[in-house]
Amino acid sequence: MDSLYSLLYQWLPLLLLFFSTSISSATNLHNKIPILSPLRRTNLLGPDDDTLSTPSLSEDFKTYFYEQTLDHFNYNPQSYTKFKQSYVINYKYWGGASSNSPIFVYLGAEAPLVGDIPIIGFLTDNAPRFKALLVYIEHRFYGNSIPLGTMEKAMENETIRGYFNSAQALADYAEVLLYVKDKLSAHNSPVIVVGASYGGMLASWFRLKYPHVALGALASSAPILYFDDITPQNGYYSRVTKDFKEASEHCYRTIRKSWSEIDKVASKPNGLSILSQKFKTCSHLNSSSELKDYLDSMYSAAAQYNQPPDYPVTQVCSGIDKADKGSDILGRIFAGVISYNGNRSCYDTLVYSRPTETMVGWSWQTCSEMVMPIGRGSNDTMFPASPFILEDFIKSCKSTFGVSPRPHWITTYYGGHDIKLVLQRFASNIIFSNGLRDPYSSGGVLENLSSNLLAVYTVKGSHCLDILPAQKSDPWWLVAQRKNEVEIIEGWIKEYYADLLAIRNEKDA
Amino acid sequence: MDSLYSLLYQWLPLLLLFFSTSISSATNLHNKIPILSPLRRTNLLGPDDDTLSTPSLSEDFKTYFYEQTLDHFNYNPQSYTKFKQSYVINYKYWGGASSNSPIFVYLGAEAPLVGDIPIIGFLTDNAPRFKALLVYIEHRFYGNSIPLGTMEKAMENETIRGYFNSAQALADYAEVLLYVKDKLSAHNSPVIVVGASYGGMLASWFRLKYPHVALGALASSAPILYFDDITPQNGYYSRVTKDFKEASEHCYRTIRKSWSEIDKVASKPNGLSILSQKFKTCSHLNSSSELKDYLDSMYSAAAQYNQPPDYPVTQVCSGIDKADKGSDILGRIFAGVISYNGNRSCYDTLVYSRPTETMVGWSWQTCSEMVMPIGRGSNDTMFPASPFILEDFIKSCKSTFGVSPRPHWITTYYGGHDIKLVLQRFASNIIFSNGLRDPYSSGGVLENLSSNLLAVYTVKGSHCLDILPAQKSDPWWLVAQRKNEVEIIEGWIKEYYADLLAIRNEKDA
């Protein structure tokens, strides 16, 4: 496992080289659609973070590979191609098959699995209580589960790349889980799937599509309603704006005014040099957009991952608000940058647009099926206007990848419109958890759909906060949210055991 | 539309020519797996039926074509290929979008749609009561909905043929229905899908996978449990046997003894000529198996379509039982053949194995994913032993089509094991209707899974009897079954209207 991260960073520059054209447009696209990860991974890649720690898993975590079907929905000879899919099992807490002890499954999402395992505290924190087996499955086309072995090879190949989508990924999970249950003779062990962000969407969809494999799902910060026109386009950035406004009205107003200030300076002779100096950028700015995109991403990340004890939005705003007296607007903004990132020799304005594996993969996913219309109008947020125009998006994807997105496929396959009307008498055992400060919560399920399709949210929570490892310093509302989730899941499992017993007694009778 | 049937019968001989090798093995396979059609279509192809009537639809039925996506689960450039999918709408009874009047949808199955429309009485019989729009959608790769235009072209192309499967077909239905609802501004009109036999499986699976498109499903004679080892292999032939035994113990015993009699005569010098003469076969028998397969298929068809007022099992048995005194066993069997088929100049022993479109298509489907392990041991039925041996089946499919079946895919994607445990607290609004005399009912859902996943069966009913047009001569139990189904569906729709109103009121409040 140790070699994964070193491998990843070996091929990143290569990837950059191979995909220089497509990636630049791909990451442009991506910038418009804030990343959906449970943790702010991008920070890992900052220039001051060059001592990247390789996550090392304890010996309790065993890594396996499953010979996975490349195409589950096709029967031509090529679709019989297999690829190796990685999954990890922790047996330490499991009560065993004979007691039908449950299986908690983390559904990997748009990143290498190995990086997620240590941060999915929900599994390890609750395994002893449930005597649960822990299974982590990597999403196809990430980490160690990439057909053809490497992302560049997989993405170069138009045919192979086509199989990189959510329906195939869900079928992968079904196959792996049925295989694992069979191997462990754990036929009657209930499976609870847990996912975060995009992985949270997958978790809720998995329970909906494969109820015979998963008894229930915890879908953390899953914006399953951010498709078509279900959620207003500006939902995401309105929430970012609200977070800043609530933290400090002055901070909010300063940011709001800053964009035209940047443009004003940029339009001066040597304007970009002035800006580069003013913001201590690691390399000379190529455009004012480079700076604006950087700030845009920084504010969004601060809001999305606005978690205790640091509360990054408060950090940014305290920098802005407490800047030296007499600071001008841009001086205050830079003070916010420092406060958020810490004192550095320089600030890397390209940090959010570097092609990580997640960036490359997610660009493809958003350009094929995960079309989330995230935009903003003029004056409806603290940001400059940047509406989502579907035609432009399609054109851009087409020029990057050569194929058009299918913008309505997600709601065709998974639904989303009138979700309460549709699901209140269909399906069960899904928790949609959210923190309302997370801008993605605007596309989440925030009301109970029925007595067992439940919305569990906190007013102050951020993106995927509930599934991160519990800390002593956690605020009471976060502790309460997790307790609530655990008790709901416990209820599902108890009910399942009672059903199992009743059906056995019926058969014996 | 008139041209469809003539076209079909124009290319049938061609098809036979093109596929002579593969078809003969394919139909061999097929013989082992009784056909799953709502009506005994094969009878249409008997030599005395050469005045094939072209089903002509009244002007109330309008035919349309939808530009359908060939591959819904892939984003490579080839998957953007489209094909024309046929669907038919009858507007005559519809109350319109403004009253949210319902939409009844027949999901086409393994046959050209045009032949099914007149026999799906459930839709036309109940449309006035519900003021329902009627929509009939053809299954991909049948009738007028074949990519590349013709079955031979589609089946010759290994890549195209790969997209011929149930998951793709369900996605087709979802796309067509969302499109039709959109065109008619019928956003809030509830959709009830109806399917029969394989189409009944599709209907139940469609409600399970696309609850946001269909409010409910009537799954008539859908053997969704005839996969893996859920249903005993001999379920089908045990039921055929039981039907005959119940009709006449003497008849049953005669058939049971007949197989070795056939073998005995066949092993004599000129044995096949003797048998050919004895059974007045239209062409000289090539083997004793040809005769045995013919009889096997005839008994199975009689049991499967054992419907009032004629009750074919009774017809066969009355021939056997009332044969001239002194008739030997084979004389009695032949009397059964005459009684079932009527007096003919000769009897076509190949009638059940001729490659109709259904035969070709279904052979592919069973050899890819629809692996139904139908077999029988020695002495557990009135037939000679013919166990289903998965390895042999796989080999045979591989040699016919070049690809291996995926025998566990159906239960992986749709479930089936422990169905009550899985679905009693998940899903709603499915009627599993069966007639217990139908041998396929052995793989059907015969107990209520919950208060709204209901098994509605009749003890005397046959395959798909409930969805055929109501007749004045229908027995009371059939009338009662249909009434029950209609009232259940009415309940779903009323509940849906109430939910719709409540949600609107909530929003307005």
Describe this structure in words.
- Chains A, B: This is Lysosomal Pro-X carboxypeptidase.
- Chains A, B: Pfam families: Peptidase_S28.
- Chains A, B: Keywords: Glycoprotein, Hydrolase, Protease, Signal.
- The structure is a homodimer.
- By secondary structure, chain A is of the alpha/beta class.
- Helix content of chain A is about 45%, strand content about 10%.
- Chain A has an eight-stranded mixed β-sheet with strand order 1-2-4-3-5-6-7-8, with helices on both faces.
- The N terminus of chain A is likely disordered.
- Chains A and B meet through helix 6, helix 7, helix 17, helix 18 and helix 19 of A and helix 6, helix 7, helix 17, helix 18 and helix 19 of B.
Primary descriptors:
eight-stranded mixed sheet; protease (chains A, B); disordered N terminus; 19 helices; peptidase activity (chains A, B); alpha/beta; Ser_carbopepase_S28_SKS (chains A, B); homodimer; Peptidase_S28 (chains A, B); AB_hydrolase_fold (chains A, B); 509 residues
Helicity of chain A, as a percent range: 40-55%
Number of helical segments of chain A? 19
Quaternary structure: homodimer
Termini Cα gap of chain A: 51 Å
Tell me the radius of gyration of chain A: 23 Å
Note the run of SSEs of chain A as H and E.
Answer: HHEEEHHEHHHEHEHHHHHHHHHHEEH
What general outline of chain A do the C-alpha atoms trace? globular
Report the sheet-strand fraction of chain A: 5-15%
Give the total of beta strands of chain A. 8
Average pLDDT, all residues of chain A: 90
Q: Write out the strand line-up for the largest beta sheet of chain A, numbering strands in chain order.
A: 1-2-4-3-5-6-7-8
Structural category of chain A is alpha/beta
Show the largest interface: A-B, 63 and 64 residues
**Poorly predicted segments of chain A:** 1-32, 41-53
Organism (chains A, B): Cinchona calisaya
GO molecular function (chains A, B): peptidase activity
Pfam family, one (chains A, B): Peptidase_S28
Protein name (chains A, B): Lysosomal Pro-X carboxypeptidase
